[in-house]
Amino acid sequence: MADRGASAPSLPEDWPAHPDHPILALNHMGTFDWDLDAGLFHMDAQAYQVFDLTPEEYDGRPETLAARVPPAESSRLDAVVSQAIKDGSENYGTYFRIRRRDGTPRWTHTQGYIRRDGTGRPRRVVGIVRDATQELEDSEARNLREAQGQALRRQTGVVQVVTAALAHASSVQEVIDVLKDTHGIPNLGATSLVMGLVEAGRIRLVAEGPAGSFVPGTRITRIEEPYPMGEVVRTLSPCFIESPEEFAEGYPILWPHITDLHITSAAYLPLIAQARPIGAMGLLYNDRLGFSSEERAVLVALGSSIAQSLQRAMLFEQEKDLAQGLQQAMLPRTIPSVRGAEVAVRYRSASAGGSLGRDIGGDWYDLIPLPGGRVGAVIGDVQGHDTHAAAVMGQLRIVLRAYAAEGHAPATVMARASVFLDELDTDRFATCLYAEADLATGVVQVVRAGHIDPLVRAADGGCRRVPVEGGLPLGLSAEFQSLEYPVSTLELDPGETLLLCTDGLVEQPGADLGDGMRALAEQVVKGPEDVRDLADLLIEIADERGGDDDVALLLLRRCGSDTAQAVGRLQQHVASGDPEALALARHMVRAAVRAWGAGDRADEIELVADELITNALMHTEGSAIVTLRVLGGSDRRLRVEVEDSSSALPRRREAGEDGVSGRGLLLVDEIADVWGVEARGGGKAVWCEFRMPEKDDGSAP
């Protein structure tokens, strides 16, 4: 302390003030009286003890205290006193350190009262000094305990927030994302997170920590390898590494690869669910050493919560994979190529989170090749989003395909499918739309069972909704006693595209269905011409929009003039026992063959057609329908079909067999280029085709 007195001091009459005050002494407080004019600093016996001095070692001058007060503390103390004097303050107080005779530091507190004369000039400072070491240590301990308590409360809060967020995680990646979120593990002070899942006696790393922290060879490790995650999985106990030295000593293989991360401590936790380890997690820190018992308890609780969420997410993913696999198994594995058309199909599962099984539903599509250049296109939706809906969908798709392949008319196909679903012992119903397209003529017959209308995109890019008169959804026929499904007809010109979809593509919560159809039409108009690219675009839009309904989509584009298309079609009904009708049919065949440019094969075609008509009239009890048409394109063919109401198939007899029945088919087989039999609902059609000659210039006539 600086000397503030004169060389010839004149001491006040009451100096020193309060010498050896007994009450202060009882409270381990010493007193001092500092005469600023004389430069003398008087201390009582208790003050000597505070400064660890004896009377013999002190001459009454403040600078002598420099033996106990370090220069830095002395300068700071002088600054406090000088500022109080300058400001006109009546008192001051501060803590400062002294150095005892054994060299140990001691905190001291002093409080002084400044006495001034009538002019305001400071003359004396009287006050107290006391040992404040224990006080500050207690205060520091309280502050430390409070800081630890706050940290523990903060960590507990982080665990609660993380646990709440994990409740919504439906995949392993979502669990990892929650933990890495700014409100997650970083709030616990961790620098890096690593996580591995137990799979067949190995640990597969699923979270690597910060960029560049991957350790070579640890993507998949055996549980028995000397790594911390393997250890906690083996022992089912957490591992707390409290210093770099402990890390390096305990895991010498791992430590050299992470030294650049400046890790100072780590906590590895086993992830245990239903009494078995499903994985392990590591939290790495670069700014702390050690873990208190409270912190360890919080981290163990966090590990338990993460394990439960992780198991739930893994189960959800397994259920999702199973559901998607079942869905794909129920849908057609492949879509057949169709002569004269380009086809694209897409399926999008519902995106609703939460309950398991929501990624499977009853939406389906199908494409059924039919004889005579025809094709059946199906789109449907079974009520519900669960495995039962998918199972019903699979059965319904198969029977509808079978009815169509048998040759039933579209209305009959839909009615029989409705009866099947009604008798299936299920409470589910289904909406469906079936379109049977003759790609040669472009004629499309459509039946609708409670489903949304189709759209048609024109060759010039325009798009329109096609209103189709409909019937009840499938499965409600018995309840409402209705099996009527009206047939609507539309023409699909070359280059036009038929679009069938389920309502998941157009419906929006709270929006009108008509608005959704118009919005879909606008998207189709703006979309690419290629049906595959257009299908991708529509599904991408559905994905961005989200929603809790599946989407099935089928696009069928009729190809242009370079593909097969009909250039002529004639039909004649021939009743049994009506020779005039038979003669008219023969005349029709003869005239058509010559008119269509196949005159050089006219006799062959007339002979075969006559044989087929005669067989139909002789071996069935009903009438026959004779149809002739020319299929154009690079391979022009004339097709003859004779349809009757008998389901009995004709049998071709080989040489050497008794009887004459069936010999006519030998003639058909010999003359026609190709022939066959098709089921047609309650009957059949026997058909044959003849290649037509080209003109002299190589073009078709």
List the defining traits of the structure above.
alpha+beta; six-stranded antiparallel β-sheet; 701 residues; six-stranded mixed β-sheet
Explained architecture:
The longest helix has 38 residues, at 293-330. The protein is built from 17 helices and 27 strands. It has 701 residues and is α+β, with helices and mostly antiparallel strands. The radius of gyration is 48 Å and the shape is rod-shaped. Strands 8-7-6-11-10-9 form a six-stranded antiparallel beta sheet, sandwiched between helices. Helix 4 packs parallel to helix 9 (293-330), helix 15 (579-595) runs antiparallel to helix 16 (602-619) and helix 16 (602-619) runs antiparallel to helix 17. The termini are far apart. 34% of the residues are buried. Mean pLDDT is 80; it is low at 2-8, 352-357, 562-566 and 696-701.
Q: Could you give a short account of the major beta sheet? A: 6 strands, antiparallel
Global structural class: alpha+beta
**Poorly predicted tracts of residues:** 2-8, 352-357, 562-566, 696-701
Beta-strand content bin: 25-35%
Summed over residues and divided by their number, the pLDDT gives a mean of: 80
- The global form is rod-shaped
Radius of gyration: 48 Å
Estimate the helix proportion, in percent. Answer: 25-40%
Number of helices: 17
The rounded distance between the terminal residues' Cα atoms is 126 Å
| Total strand segments | 27
Strand arrangement in the largest pleated sheet: 8-7-6-11-10-9
